Amino acid sequence: MIEDCYLGRLRRLTADGRRRILGLVGAPGAGKSTLAQAILDAFPGQAVVVPMDGFHLANAELARLGSASRKGAEDTFDSAGYVALLRRLREQRHDETIYAPTFRREIEEPIAGAISVTPDLPLVITEGNYLLLEHGHWKAARPLLDEVWYVNVDPKLRRQRLVNRHMSFGRDGAAAEQWVRQTDEVNATLVDSTRERADVQFQWSS
Asked: Taking 80 as the threshold, does the pLDDT of residue 63 lie above it?
């Protein structure tokens, strides 16, 4: 459940009906997608979710780069493409529908053109790990966001969520725990270092 103080903040942000982009940031497994869906449910017909994960590089490209074992690291995304989409969403014409990619965990691949963003929607919610990084193409993302919330969660719970997620998509327990330890937690440390750049520290209500 989202507390009223957070919902009130979003109502004020979108009160004039103009396009606003909300960024949700947090370590892997923090609950960003869950929060994005909860906000979407609280603003029916007024919002859309555009995840950063749609800009994962394809598995074939990761293999070519020798980065398949690091999938999810900051350099395994098309960061320039993501920033370009944010810019388009800010400048969207009244007669234009913008199509954004999504990421399908069941096939571990991005899918182009899967999300339609119509110009009448006042709130775009984008969620991902690296929205607050201050280097590379990522540094251009923050100025394109009206507000950024950092999603906080107990680290032990977050790690268990990740293990469960990886197991649900085919890894055995040992492989899931190894991936979390060697890949997800490395990324989590980097993401956590950006925490103080967020406008809001979000905590789920019990």
From this structure: yes
pLDDT on residue 205: 63
pLDDT tens-digit map of 90-124: 999 999 999 999 999 889 899 999 999 999 999 99
- Residue 121 is encoded by which pair of tokens? 């929607």
| Residue ranges per structural domain of the chain | 19-202
Give the span between the Cα atoms of 116 and 51, in whole angstroms: 12
Give the separation between CA 113 and CA 79, rounded to whole angstroms.
17
Q: Which residue type sits at 77?
A: F
According to CATH, the superfamily of the domain at 19-202 is: P-loop containing nucleotide triphosphate hydrolases (3.40.50.300)
Report CA-CA distances (Å) from 75 to 82, 132, 158, 173.
12, 14, 23, 27
Please, what is the average pLDDT of the chain?
94
Has this prediction a pTM greater than 0.70? yes
Q: Which residues contact 53 (CB under 8 A, 6 or more apart)?
A: 102, 103, 110, 128
Q: How many Å is the Cα radius of gyration of the chain?
A: 17
